[in-house]
Write a structure and sequence with these properties.
60% helix, 3-stranded mixed β-sheet, mainly alpha, 309 residues, disordered N terminus, 3 strands
Length: 309
C-alpha cells in the first residue's frame, strides 16, 4: 500500500514521491471541498449565497480547464501580450499582439538556455522546489525593506503562472490566485512542461515573446543553436525585458551576466529523463522550506526592526 515509501527505494526518490503524493492529496481534498460547498449552496434558500457558490464553482472549473488545455497545447495569447498591445496602441513604436510569438518544444531549445535561466532565476533549485522558494521570498522581503529598488522573489513556476494566466498587477488578490495556479501547474504539468511554457511566453523585449523569437531577433538563428554566452545574455535580460537589450550592454547588465557565468561553473544540467533518481538532498532541503519557515522569518525580522526602533 505504501510502496512509494519503501526503504529499498533511495531516500531522495522516496522524498520526491512523498511530495508528489501530498500534492495530489491536497488537490483531491480541495476538489471535494469545492463540490461540498457547491451542493451546500444549491440547497440554500439564500439567493446571494447560491450565486456566490456558482461563481466559486465556475472559477474552479475554468481555471482547471485552462491548466489542462495548456498542458497539451500552446497558450494562444497571454494577458501580458494583450496589455502591451493596448499600452502603445496607435504609437509609432506600437507593439504587435503576437507577431513575434513562436512556441517551440523544449527539444528545440538549447539546454544551455535552460541552465542559464535556472541559474539566473532560481540558482539550481527549480527542479527541486514545490512551486515556491520561500527562502527567496524572505531574501526579497529583506532587500525591499532596505533598498529603494524592488526585488521579486518569485520562482519560475510562479512567473509561469503569472505570465500565462494573470495580469501583472501588484495586489494581494493576484498573488493569492497566482499561488492557486502554481499548485495546479505543479500538479498537472510537471517541471518539464513548466520550463517549456515559461521559455516560450516570457517577454524578451518590446513585442518579443519566447526564446525562439528572441534568438531570431538578437542573434539571427534558432534557439536550438544558442551558444553559452548568448544563452546567458538572454537569461540576464529577463528581470528587465524592456530596458535590458542583449545586443547593447549596460554596466548593471554586464554584472549580472558575470554572476550567471560564475553560477554555471558548478551547475549540473537538469536531466528531464531521470529527474527523480538524481536528486541532490541539499537542494531538496534548501528548496522545500515551507510556509511556516517564511512566516517565522518575517516575524523575526519585524521583531528585530521594532527592537531597533
Amino acid at each position: 500500500m505504501f510502496r512509494f515509501l519503501s526503504t529499498d527505494i533511495p531516500a531522495p526518490l522516496r522524498l520526491r514521491r512523498w511530495l508528489i503524493a501530498r500534492r495530489w492529496c491536497f488537490f483531491i481534498l480541495l476538489s471535494l471541498g469545492v463540490l461540498a460547498f457547491l451542493f451546500w449552496g444549491i440547497s440554500s434558500h439564500n439567493l446571494f449565497l447560491r450565486i456566490s457558490v456558482w461563481l466559486v464553482f465556475a472559477f474552479w472549473l475554468v481555471t482547471l480547464l485552462q491548466v489542462v488545455y495548456c498542458k497539451f497545447f500552446p497558450p494562444v495569447v497571454t494577458p501580458l501580450m494583450i496589455r502591451r498591445f493596448f499600452q502603445n496602441r496607435g504609437a509609432s513604436d506600437s507593439v504587435p499582439l503576437r507577431d513575434s510569438y513562436r512556441f517551440v518544444p523544449l527539444e528545440s531549445i538549447s539546454p544551455l538556455l535552460v541552465s542559464a535561466v535556472d541559474c539566473s532565476e532560481n540558482y539550481k533549485l527549480f527542479a527541486y522546489c514545490r512551486g515556491f522558494l520561500f527562502k527567496g521570498l524572505c531574501e526579497a522581503y529583506l532587500s525591499n525593506q532596505h533598498d529603494g529598488a524592488k526585488r521579486g522573489g518569485s520562482c519560475i513556476s510562479q512567473q509561469t503562472a503569472k505570465n500565462c494566466f494573470l495580469p501583472h498587477s501588484r495586489t494581494l488578490l493576484r498573488k493569492l490566485i497566482e499561488a492557486y495556479y502554481v499548485v495546479l501547474i505543479e500538479l498537472f504539468w510537471g517541471k518539464r512542461r513548466i520550463m517549456e511554457v515559461y521559455l516560450n511566453i516570457i517577454e524578451f523585449g518590446p513585442g518579443i515573446y519566447g526564446c525562439e523569437a528572441a534568438s531570431q531577433h538578437y542573434f539571427h538563428h534558432s534557439a536550438a543553436s544558442l551558444t553559452e554566452h548568448e544563452a546567458v545574455l538572454l537569461a540576464a535580460s529577463l528581470p528587465w525585458p524592456l530596458s535590458a537589450n542583449p545586443g547593447h550592454h549596460e554596466p548593471y547588465f554586464d554584472r549580472f551576466v558575470n554572476v550567471i557565468h560564475r553560477r554555471l561553473q558548478d551547475y549540473t544540467p537538469i536531466n528531464w529523463d531521470t529527474p527523480l533518481a538524481e536528486l541532490d538532498l541539499q537542494c531538496v532541503e534548501e528548496s522545500n522550506r515551507g510556509l511556516l519557515f517564511f512566516i517565522k522569518w518575517v516575524l523575526l525580522q519585524k521583531f528585530k526592526h521594532n527592537k531597533q526602533v
